[in-house]
Amino acid sequence: MSLILWIPLVGPLALAGLSLLPGTSALRRFVGVAASSAVLIAGLVLVSAVLNGAVPETGGGMLRADALSAYMISVVGAVGLIATWGGLSSAASSRTKVAASYEALIALFLAAMSLAVLADSIGLMWAAVEATTIATAFLVGHHRTGRSLEAAWKYVILGSVGVAIALLGIGFIYAASVGTDTPTLSWLLLSQSNLGLDPALITAGGALAVLGFATKAGLAPMHSWLPDAHSQAPAPVSGLMSGVLLSVALYAILRIQSITNLVIGPEFLRIMLSIGGLLSLLVAASLLIRQRDYKRMLAYSSIEHMGLMAIGVAIGPAALPSVLLYVLGHGLIKATLFVISGRILKVEGTPVIADVRALLVRRPGLAVPWLIAMAAIVGFPPFSIFFSEVGIIMAGWSVGLGGVIGAALVLLLVIFAAFTRLTVQMTLGPPAEGVGFTPDYSAHGPRLPIILALATTATVAFVAEPVGTLLLQATAVLGGSN
């Protein structure tokens, strides 16, 4: 079983190398799909193993899959598959002399995210997160326009600052363990309540590490790289970054929190994450009201959802199953929306909301899935985001964070109104004079990944076994149990 842990790492790396070989142009465009499939299959096998009581590990314990890691690797694979498969038409339209490096970077990006969630060492996890910065910087600038290159540099600078702060925090956490019998960066060892870690160093290290990873998660006030990067990257890359890169950074925060809670209690990071979450919701609400670009609209939506997830993390164990379900639902829906936005951009030729009108009449093959996915992302039932948000709200009230929850609800109402207005502007109403009806949308790209993503998010919240069991086991891991 331990060999399965290598598949999400070696598989994408091998495919990345294959894409760079001469004479592979016919198969090159499927490298991202193949790499995502390898990660997803490995994740599902690991989920089956942990549900049967196993905890696979290899590499001398450096790679390890508990319930949380197995769940996250499955999310990486599932969201990656939707983004790369659904984005085949977008990728194909950008076939240039850099196509090989594009596909190789997608595969490397998936390998780096897989390593981040499978690593038992905080240091190795940090290195993997830094590797995602390197890979995605080139992907953000893939179009080689002035705006995309500016967005890539902004992402590199702010992302590097964030991971540098996180590295400093990890250094403090290691220093806290030096005074014990087992100096270590292992999650497994640091999560033991009797290790005797220094509280002052854990406080400083936890705060810095969470601040650094919050930058990668797109939480305010360290969010400014996200709208530019997500709006300028190719659609599949935007889907991957929004759908799983932000969640992998949140995963790192969860692991750090599980250590700090054992040593100094939950209140310190609860305050920090609550403030970051509310600021993220405020930023999203204020900028969505007058948003003019539909890809940037989706980027600010990511800030909103990561903010609410951060509030869920702040609440603690009562909200964590909802947060983890949120990670999957948001990832699948946001990947779907970015894929559809790429198709809209391809046929409309503009990202400006005011220039896209009456899609439901003119291009129903795009408008219908767009409307369904928008209903899912703003929290309509039966989609899983609705149940995740309700779970977080109820958990917040139960632990005495009524003020935080009340403020979040007000901001969510503003965001809902903004999304509704912008979506109506794009999809409803009569077409402009002289603009005809275009009935054939078969060239827009594969529909099956979009159907699968929407169907999964509409049903997963009702699957108590094995999904509910897995979420509870993952929550127990974060509580210090194995």
From TrEMBL:
Q: What superkingdom heads the lineage?
A: Bacteria
Q: Does the keyword ATP-binding belong to this entry?
A: no
Which UniProt keywords are listed? Cell membrane, Membrane, Oxidoreductase, Transmembrane, Transmembrane helix
Could you mention a single GO BP entry for this protein? Answer: ATP synthesis coupled electron transport
Localization of this protein: Cell membrane; Membrane
Pfam families from the UniProt entry: Proton_antipo_M
- Bilayer topology: Multi-pass membrane protein
**Keyword field contains Cell membrane:** yes
Tell me which InterPro entries the record gives. ComplexI-like_HydComp (IPR052175), NADH_UbQ_OxRdtase (IPR003918), ND/Mrp_TM (IPR001750)
Annotated GO MF terms: NADH dehydrogenase (ubiquinone) activity; oxidoreductase activity
Domain spans labelled NADH:quinone oxidoreductase/Mrp antiporter transmembrane: 120-407
The transmembrane residues are 6-23, 30-55, 67-88, 100-118, 124-141, 153-175, 195-214, 235-256, 268-289, 366-387, 393-419
| Chief location of this protein within or outside the cell | membrane
GO cellular component terms given for this protein:
plasma membrane
Which PANTHER family has this protein been placed in? HYDROGENASE-4 COMPONENT F
User: What is the protein name stated in its UniProt record?
Assistant: Hydrogenase
